[in-house]
Automatic annotation (TrEMBL):
The keyword Electron transport is assigned to this record: no
The protein's required cofactors: FAD
Name this polypeptide is given: Flavin-containing monooxygenase
Statement: the UniProt record of this protein carries the keyword Flavoprotein: yes
Alphabetically ordered keywords of this record: FAD, Flavoprotein, Monooxygenase, NADP, Oxidoreductase
């Protein structure tokens, strides 16, 4: 399957949607492979989610589909949850810069440092010249067969110059998936009188001073952990409700005298009370939903070939190509619980090589068969659809290495894999201190030994 051919043969005209980390590296890989690239970015700068803004949406739950969308979901205190050495692109190390006051040298730096790194990356590879800023893609659809049978794509975009209607050979979707909130369903919430907010619209704790807050987290939500601690600095009480804990749980979290852990909420009542499954009741001012995000592609019209069903974007071969529309349509960056930048890079290399003809895809039927087998496997293991793009345990690096093999690119470094696993465990074991205390200095040394070849 997918043999490599020695020479790239075809140069395609490709639209990349979004100039976050995924779109930037996609543009670089496409151009390296000999394609012509236009990156369409609705914001005014690169970096996507890493472009922190104090602005929030007018609707704190972001339920109104016609609301003005704020892309970034970062809060002001955010530091990375992945160590910088394993977070960066494979050939452009996210190394600590010398202390000149302008950069954050910490291992888990502030969000400003990630944006600075992405700016360095864009500058190093002259990526900005490919980007059209303040240009929002409003429609991307396959060109009708009678107009063209070459699998081309029509892309309509809106900017201050009006609406552009253009034809491309391929479209790479790099629009991110941390902007469209998911919410918890809470019995009785319609008559509960307090305020609700989704973490997408959380920036700073000030507004919660002296309040009683219930923070709902799902899964291993790093932001839920951060935000509840951020708010606990000023709030009267913070009650975290987690569905991953046993129904009896009632714990005061170490290091705080106003932060408790509970199981799920049983009911919210008209009198302002919130009752947890453990039988405890609190009278809360605000419920904060740290309940994650949905994949959302309002601009994409695939005539039903790709759907989002319970947060499964499918059918997609290896999370990237819809078999019926490959290779003209591809998605970069759907997997989660991963170290994203290296994966974006490998997915982009694969797509670029497929588009040039240097690497072949299996037939449409074979891709569909493979995808169905994957979905059946999830189902028979009892894994819900919404976890289709979750890559737990070894699966992320197996996947990365599969992509690397397709493109004849080196596999993921062993130190990077180990650092990710150790770092991930550290988040659970020492959630309040993991960013500043570690015991894997030997892996940092290995990383920097490797970085030497990429740093001048
Ligand atoms: P984004 O960065 O979201 O970029 C998408 C871009 O597409 C945006 O610029 C947007 O404006 C543009 N766009 C969207 N729709 C359109 C349209 N219709 N037309 C034109 N442009 C459009 N990752 C880590 O590696 N380490 C971390 O510590 C970490 N912490 C995180 C903390 C939070 C709170 C969140 C939300 C995410 C975190 N991530 C972290 C994951 C992060 O999302 C990825 O690292 C990565 O930056 C995502 O890049 P992306 O390019 O896929 O998406």
């Amino acid at each position: 399957m997918a043999p490599s051919h020695p020479d790239p043969t075809i140069s395609r005209h490709v639209a990349v949607i979004g100039a976050g980390a995924a779109g930037l590296v996609a543009a670089r890989e496409l151009r390296r492979e000999g394609h012509s690239v236009v990156v369409l970015e609705r914001g005014s700068q690169i970096g996507g989610v890493w472009g922190y803004t104090s602005q929030v949406e007018p609707d704190p739950l972001s339920l109104d589909p016609s609301r003005p969308v704020v892309h970034s979901s970062l809060y002001r205190s955010l530091r990375t949850n992945i160590p910088r050495e394993c977070m960066g692109f494979t050939d452009f190390p996210f190394a600590a810069r010398p202390h000149d006051g302008s950069r954050d040298p910490r291992r888990h730096p502030a969000h400003t440092e990630v944006l600075a790194y992405l700016r360095d990356f864009a500058k190093e590879f002259d990526i900005e010249e490919m980007i059209r800023f303040e240009t929002e893609v409003v429609k991307a659809e396959p060109v009708e067969a009678e107009e063209d049978d070459g699998g081309k794509w029509r892309v309509k975009s809106r900017s201050s110059d009006g609406v552009a209607d253009e034809i491309y050979d391929a479209v790479m979707v790099c629009n991110g998936h941390y902007t469209e909130p998911r919410h918890a369903l809470i019995a009785g919430i319609d008559s509960w009188p307090g305020k609700q907010i989704h973490s997408h619209n959380y920036r700073v704790p000030d507004q919660f001073k002296n309040q009683v807050i219930v923070v709902i987290v799902i899964g291993s939500s790093a932001s839920g952990v951060d935000i509840s601690r951020d708010i606990a600095k000023v709030a009267k009480e913070v009650h975290v409700s987690s569905r991953s804990t046993s129904p009896e749980t009632y714990e005061k979290l170490p290091g705080y005298d106003n932060l408790w852990l509970h199981p799920t909420i049983e009911i919210a009542r008209e009198d302002g009370s919130v009752v947890f499954e453990n039988g405890k009741t609190v009278y809360a001012d605000t419920i904060m939903h740290c309940t994650g995000y949905k994949y959302y592609f309002p601009f994409l019209d695939t005539k039903g070939e790709v759907t989002v069903d319970d947060n499964r974007v499918g059918p997609l071969y290896k999370h990237v190509f819809p078999p019926a529309l490959a290779p003209g349509l591809s998605f970069i960056g759907l997997p989660w619980q991963i170290t994203p930048f290296p994966m974006f890079e490998l997915q982009s290399k694969w797509v670029a090589a497929v588009l040039s003809g240097r690497v072949s895809l299996p037939s449409q039927d074979e891709m569909m068969e493979d995808t169905k087998t994957f979905y059946n496997k999830l189902e028979s293991s009892g894994i819900p659809k919404r976890y289709t793009h979750l890559m737990p345990d070894d699966s992320q690096f197996e996947y990365d290495n599969w992509l690397a093999d397709q493109c004849d690119y080196p596999r993921i470094e062993k130190w990077r894999e180990q650092m990710f696993y150790i770092g991930f465990k550290r988040i659970y074991a020492q959630s309040a201190t993991y960013r500043d205390n570690w015991d894997d200095d030997h892996l940092i040394a290995e990383a920097y030994d490797d970085f030497v070849k990429f740093m001048s």
